[in-house]
Amino acid sequence: MSETPKLTRRPEWTELEDHRSGPLLHPDLRELFAADPGRAQRYVVRVGDLRIDYSKNLVTDETLALLQELAAATDVFGLRDAMFRGEKINVTEDRAVLHTALRAPRDAVIEVDGENVVPKVHAVLDKMSEFANRVRSGEWTGHTGRRIRNVVNIGIGGSDLGPAMAYEVLRPFTERSLTFRFVSNVDGADLHEAVRDLDPAETLFVVASKTFTTIETITNATSARSWLLAGLGGDDKAVARHFVALSTNAEKVTEFGIDPDNMFEFWDWVGGRYSYDSAIGLSLMIAIGPERFREMLDGFHIVDEHFRTAPAEANAPLILGLLGIWYGNFFGAQSHAVLPYSHYLSKFTAYLQQLDMESNGKSVQRDGRPVDWQTGPVVWGTPGTNGQHAYYQLIHQGTKVIPADLIGFARPVDELSGELKAQHDLLMANLFAQGQALAFGKTADEVRAEGVAEEQVPHRTFRGNHPTTTILARELTPSVLGQLVALYEHKVFVQGAIWNIDSFDQWGVELGKVLAKRVEPALTDGADVPGLDPSTAALVAAYRELKEV
Ligand code: F6P
Question: In its keyword annotation, does this UniProt entry include Cytoplasm (predicted)?
C-alpha cells in the first residue's frame, strides 16, 4: 500500500488551521447573518424529503470552500466510488462494504468477486416478505396450532439496535395486534422481562446474529429455547415453529438446532451496524409489513444515489461530515449531540452511537500508522424537549463546544388526533427556539435592558454561537427513516475517509470479549484464573464474598 500523506501536513489542513486562527478565531453568528442576508437560504441542502439547514454553523463561504478542498485532497469521492463498486475497502478484514446493495433496485448490478449480489439480496427480501406475511396473516402457526402474537428479537449491537430503533420509529405503521420485544443484554433480567407475560404457544423468537457466535445472543437464545420447551411440554419439534435465525453463518445456525429453512441469510459484506436493512430487519418487517419495509429501503436508496452523484457543494452527507471535521479537528469538540424532536426517534441516537462510534472510534490509519488527529466524536442525545430540562443547561452555558443536530417534522403522525395533534406546534416551537437560543444567545445588554440587577447579569447571559444543524421533513414515514439513516451512514463514511481510518472493522470490542470468557469461571466456580491483575483479582474476590453472604 502506498503511503498516504500525513493528514495534518496537507496544505488543505494547514489552511484550515490558519482560517480558524485568523478570520474565524471568534466566529459570531449574529455578525455572520448580518453580513450575509442570503445565508439562511443558501446554507440549506435538500435530499429526498429532508431539508437540512446548516446556516447556524460557525462557517463562512471560505470555510466551506476550504473544507471541500480537504475532501478533494483526501479523495473522499474516490473511496466512495470504490465502496459502491464493491471493492474491498474494509482493509483489515479484506471485505467489501456494500450495505448500499441491500437497498439497490432489482435490476441493479453490483459485483463482489465477479458475482452480481443484487439477485441474492432480492431473493432474501422475497423470502422475508413471504414469511412476514404468513406471520401477520396468522397462516404461520406455532407448535400447538395457535397463531403467533408475539415476536421476540434476540440480538445485540447491530443485530438489535437497528431493528429495535426502527420498530420504535415506525410504531404508527406497525400491526398493533402483535407484540414486539427486543432482548439484547446477557443480564437474564432482559429476557425475563421480555417473556414473563407471554404465552410460549404464541411466541416467535427471531435470533439475529451475523456471526451466530456472539455469547450474549447465543446464551439468551438458549435460555429462550428452554423457556419455550418448558412451556410447551418439552417437545423439541416445537423449535422449528418458534425459532428463526438471521445470520451469515448457516453452519452455526444448524448447530444451534434451527432449521436452515428458517434461516434468513445475509453476507460478510454487510457490517453489523449497517445491517438492519438486511435480513436483520425481519422482526421490523413483520411489524410494518413488506410494503412499508420496501418503502424504507427506497428511502435509503434515494440518499445513496444522492451521495453517489450529487456535486460536492450540494452533497448532504459530505457537508455534514465536513462540519463534524471542522468542529472536532479545529475547535477541539469532543462530542456531537443528536437531538430529535420526536418521541418516535427516542432510540435513534443510541442507534447512531454504534453506527458512528464503532465505525470511527479508531486511532490507527488504514495502513496501521497511528493518527495524531482526533477521530470519531462521542455521539449522544435524547429527544429534545426532555433534554432541555436535563442537560441543555451545559450546552447553553457550559464551557464545551457541542455541535448538535436538531431533527423535527412538520406534521405529527396521522394516528394522533385532537389535542395530542395540536401539541405538535408546541413541540416544534421548542426545536426552533433552542436553535435560535443556541446560535444567538442573549447579550449582557439585552439582559440589562430587562432590568436585571447587575450582579445577576453574567448568570443570565447566553454567549450563543453554539452550532446546530436543523433537519426537517414533512413527516416521519418509513422512507424518511431510511433517508435519515443513510444520511448518517454516509456522513460517518466521509469522516472516516478524511481521517484515513477503516470505518468498517471493530477490533476494539474483541479484548473485552476474550477477557470476559476468561474471568467467568472465577465467578461461577471460584476457579483460579491465572494472570488476573491485582485490582481485578480483588474485585472478583469481593464479588464472590458478597455472592455467598
Ligand atoms: O461486538 C461488536 C459486534 O461485533 C458488533 O459489531 C455487532 O453488531 C455485534 O457485535 C453483534 O454481532 P453479531 O450480529 O455477530 O451477533
Answer: yes
